[in-house]
What does this fold into?
Amino acid sequence: MYNLNIQSKIAILANTKKQSWPLGDYIHILSFIPNLKFKKLSWYSSRDVFKIVREIDFIDSFKSLKQFKKNNYDHVINLYEDLPNDKKNFYIKNLFNKNLDEKQNTKNLLTKLGKVYNVKKHKIFFNRKEKIKCKYDVFICWNTDDKWKIKRYPFKNYLKIKEKLEAKYNIKIKIQKKQDSLNKYIQNIKHSKIILSVMTLGIHLSMVFDKDLVALIGPNNYNDLRLYKKVVQILPSKRCFVHKKKLNINYKKCSCMKNINENKIITAISKIYEKIS
It folds into this structure.
């Protein structure tokens, strides 16, 4: 439907007042865009999203949504309005089932985008590799929004993991603080060698910065995580009866995360640490 080429100028529009996405989903969507042919990629939104998308190095400019001029672009990807697609504009909400929540709608999002743009075998793209001086060997991303607190792993298990790894190696481990600012959170991920994270923003940022990643997968997941070559996914030994049948459902009595073995996590981090040290 969309005839893009190496001279195309693409704009992406986001408006958190009309469509508030989890921050990780913005990165998820952006990881697909380099599958398309274009010369210039511009991002338009309110400044609250800039802290995240500014970390993506293949975006050429970041501007306020008020500055957007449609005549400057060959193609526009709209992340917030619910309008029919046309020859120039693609409205991503047309891909979603209004009866499902965002976790269910975004599970296969990149595959759906591949069909829209006739990309038969999509890849995920993140920043070009750069040498980053690291302060920590491991950074632990444990927190989630309260709505999806079932994704959290028991905090006492993190303390055991930290204690055992520190006893085993001369290793520096930092655990996310609940009061950390978004900028602090980003910088901790950027300046750590290995990331241990539940399914949250930490997963997406780890891939942006090309980090070795140990992902704790409980009640939800998305299919494109398997395309990231530096991830080890650790699953529960047993899922709750809801998520045994279907993931990405917010079942308040979920027990999946409690059934992830801490020794599997220690083994995974140990293997990565020994390999990169």
Observations:
- The longest helix spans residues 262-276.
- Residues 27 and 145 are 17 Å apart (CA to CA).
- The first strand starts at residue 9 and ends at 13.
- DSSP finds eight helices and ten strands in the chain.
